[in-house]
Amino acid sequence: MTALGISKVTANRLYYGTDNGGVYRLDGANSGDPSPVDVGTGKGLPSGAYVSCIAVDPTDFDRAMIVFSNYNVQSLFFTTNGGTNWSAVAGNLEQLADGTGNGPSCRWASILPVGGTTTYFVGTSTGLYSTSTLNGSSTVWSQEGATTIGSVVVDMIVSRQADGLVVAATHANGAFSATVGATLAAPNLNSPANGATNVATNTSLSWDAVSSATSYTVQVSTSSNFSSLVVNQSGITGTSYSPTGLSGGTTYHWRVSAENTTGTSGFSTARSFTTALAPPSPPTLAAPADGATGVSTSLMLSWNGVAGATSYAVQVSLFSNFAAFVVNQSGLTGTTFTASGLANGTIYFWRVSASNPGGTGGFSSTRTFTSIVAAPTAPTLAAPANGATGISTSPTLSWNMAPGADSYTLQISVSSTFDSFLLNQSGLTSTTFNATGLSSGTTYFWRVSATNAGGTSTFSAARSFTTSPASSVELVDGLSPKDFNLAQNYPNPFNPSTSIRFSLPKESFVRIMVLDAAGKVVRQLVREAKSAGTYLVRWDGRDENGSVVASGVYFYRLESPYYNRTMKMVLLK
Fold it and tell me: CATH code for 473-571?
C-alpha cells in the first residue's frame, strides 16, 4: 500500500493505492472489517503504475484525485462518483495525451475548496501547479511560485480549508506556504453558442458579468488545450470582445477569466466555433487543352483542385455565352467528369466553378474543344457485279466513295464468312484496287470498310465473283515445226468464239494477247513457257473482267524472244 486518502464529508471513507496501480475504496472504514471495493481495475487507469498520492475533496467524499508518479503514463485522474468512473486530468502537464514524452513526474495532490471556488494543487518534479477548472485532457495547469518555489521537486502538499492555507514541501528548497482567499467565479460564456458554425471572422465574443470583477481576459486558440494562442487579450473592462485576424473555415476554441484586485478566476468552460468559409477561387482547367480537336464523344474533363473547395460544377455548351447547356453538373467531389453522348464534329465550350459552405466561386476561364468526326458509313461495292463469272485472275475491284472516309480496307477470301484472307489490305486511299495472283476458276468473296479519324465503318455487303478457267492451250502436234508461225484465227469473222493456232520450232516463253483497235490489251490468252510444237488456243470474246466485248476489229499478237507477229480478226454479232 503506497497512498491513503480519507474523506471528511461524509466521513470514514478511505481510498488507498498500491505500488502496482491498484486503487481501492473502504466505506465505513472506522469500524468492523469492511470489504474493499476495487475502483481501479478496468477503469482506464495505467496498469502497474505507482500510486503516490490520493487526495479527497473535504466537502464531498465522492470527489477524489489519484496521482501516478511514473514517467510515460498518464499522471492524474479524477472521479466525481467515488471511483465508478475516472477521467484523465493531467492536461498540459503531459507532453503527449497518452502520458508519454517529456512531461514532469507528478508526486502529490491536494484539493482546497475556499469561498465557493475549488483549487486543485499538484506537486511535480518541476514545481507546484494549480487549476480551478478540471476539463479532462484539456485541463490547463498553471505554475505557482515560479520565482520563489522554483522548478524543483515538490514532494508533498498540505492544505487547510478553514483558512485557505497551503504548504508545499520541496526536495531542494525547503517548504513554502501561502493563503488562498475567496476567488472570483469563472465567467459564463454567452455567444457564439458552443459548436456554432458559419460564424463571421469579425464576430463579437460575449459573456456574462462576474460580480466584483474589474476586467476580463479572453483567450482564443485553434487547439482545444490552448497550447498556442491566436488571441490572449487581458484588461477588457466590458463583457464582449471582437477578435481580429481570424481565418475563414477554421475551428476556434475560446474561454474567459475574470480579474480584480484580489486575484484572477479560473477560466470559463471553453467553447468552440467555426468561422464561415470564403467561397473558393475559380479552378484552373487541365484537360483537354484549349482548342483541342479530334476529341472523343465520351470525354473526361479534368481540372486542378482548389484549396477549401468541397464540390465542383461543370458546364458544357454549344454557345460561348453558355445560353444553353449540354452538361450542367454540380455536386462533383472529384476533379474529373466524363461528358458522354457528345455529337461528332462539334465545337464545345466548357468551364468549372468550385463551391464550399461559404458559397460558390466564379467560373474558370472558358476552354473549347472539337469532337471527333463521325466514323464513315460502309462503302457500296461497284465492280465486278455480285456473282460475276469469267473474271480475270488480275481483276480491278472498285467501290463507291464513302463520305468523310480517309482510307479503305479491302478483304478478299475464298470463304463467305471471311475466316481467312487471301488479301486484307488497309490504308487504301483510292476506290479501286488491282488484285493479282488470283487462281483460275475460283470463286472469291470480297468486301470493303471505310476509315477516318472517327473510326472504321462496318464492312460493305460482301460480293462474290468467279475467275475464268485457265485458258485451254491444246498441243495439236508434238513434232517440232520448221519455223515460228502465228496462223489466222478460225473462224473469222466469229461469234462468239474463235481458235488461234501457233507453232514453235523450239522451247520458248510465249505471250499471246488480244488487243482492241486502239492497241489496248483486252485479254491475255497465253503467258508461259512452251516446248516445241503446234498449239491451239481459244478466245471466248470476253475481256479480263469476264465481260463480253463489243463487235469490231481486234488484233491478236504473239510475242517471244525469237518471234513477234500481229494478226487481225473480226468479232461480228
Answer: 2.60.40.1930
